[in-house]
């Protein structure tokens, strides 16, 4: 039966958007006759504020990340911003009303808390019963997600379910299905063929370096440090949309002995993770979920204060990742892991126990079920 599913996210280049795209693909595979509308809620409700907020956020996390850490899920901040959030949600729900009346969604899913608040306010003030699903992409459930009007929460793990229960969300509303990632991550690939296509050797370890979409994690200092690895490694660097970092690494690689391939924004992350033996990254929710799907051990470097610090604590506790203190420490960890295959195998076993590669399909099933 044809269903209309509304998906909402914020910021084009973000894990929230990637999760939303993954959901769209999964819904259409499950129910091809359905209509899916994927909307940037911030742009819909306040395009000027979207640009201002994004610029401010990027400025803070690049120059003063500790400030963001102090703001993240701070109860005092949550309390003090309650009124202004209510104003924004009311204003946003008025603009959302036109979209909802035209599209007539049978269910709504939000991969970020801001649109979830707007839709929750819309449900409350308009007295509508449209099922609303909050899709959390991090291991750190903050208080901005909490709305009585949310009918279901999709969370990465059982631990996050427990954390939400402690925040007084009914357990029956919480589904630990994992973070929705592109269904392409479940495809079986020919690793050796991919390695050769990239001009790499199948006989040498491949280290993948990723700094997220904006390339603000591991940088050229790490690439320089990796030159000191005892093992004859090959390095693939994905710099996202960070052109300055791309240019720096491209210039740097000319003077290096080890093989380095530098890529800008990549749409084949599933292939890069397939060929990698290790990934050095900051622990954004989508990157973590994708690495788990590919059974890829993680070395975490430069996590952002706030959600990424909390992600790191959970991942290291589970034996899925190792946190590096700095670039030199990351190199020591890489050498140690490559010299100890048993430790790598142990990490992969922990990863397989945690991975949820079919989360997008399972979340799609839930959305379609709620829409009946």
Question: Layout of helices and strands, plus pairs?
Answer:
Blueprint: E1 4-9, H1 15-30, E2 35-40, H2 41-45, H3 47-63, H4 65-71, H5 75-80, H6 82-103, E3 107-110, H7 113-126, E4 132-135, E5 152-154, H8 158-166, E6 174-175, H9 191-197, E7 206-210, H10 220-226, E8 234-238, H11 243-253, E9 259-263, H12 269-275, E10 278-281, H13 285-293, E11 298-300, H14 307-317, E12 321-323, H15 327-339, H16 341-354, H17 359-370
Parallel strand pairs: 1-2, 1-3, 3-4, 4-5, 5-6, 7-8, 7-10, 8-9, 10-11, 11-12
Helix pairs in contact: 1-17, 3-4, 6-7, 10-15
Count of the separate structural domains = 2
Our count of helices gives 17
Identify the CATH architecture of the largest domain. 3-Layer(aba) Sandwich
Query: What is the H level of CATH, i.e. the homologous superfamily of the largest domain?
Result: Glycogen Phosphorylase B
The run of helices and strands is: EHEHHHHHEHEEHEHEHEHEHEHEHEHHH
SS class: alpha/beta
The helix content is 40-55%
CATH C-level class of the largest domain is Alpha Beta
How many whole angstroms does the radius of gyration measure? 21 Å
Mean of pLDDT: 88
Proportion of residues in β-strands: 5-15%
For the sheet with most strands, the description reads: 6 strands, parallel
CATH topology value of the largest domain:
Rossmann fold
Q: Rough shape? A: elongated
What's the total count of β strands? 12
Q: State the end-to-end CA separation.
A: 9 Å
The unreliable regions are: none
Strand order of the largest sheet: 2-1-3-4-5-6
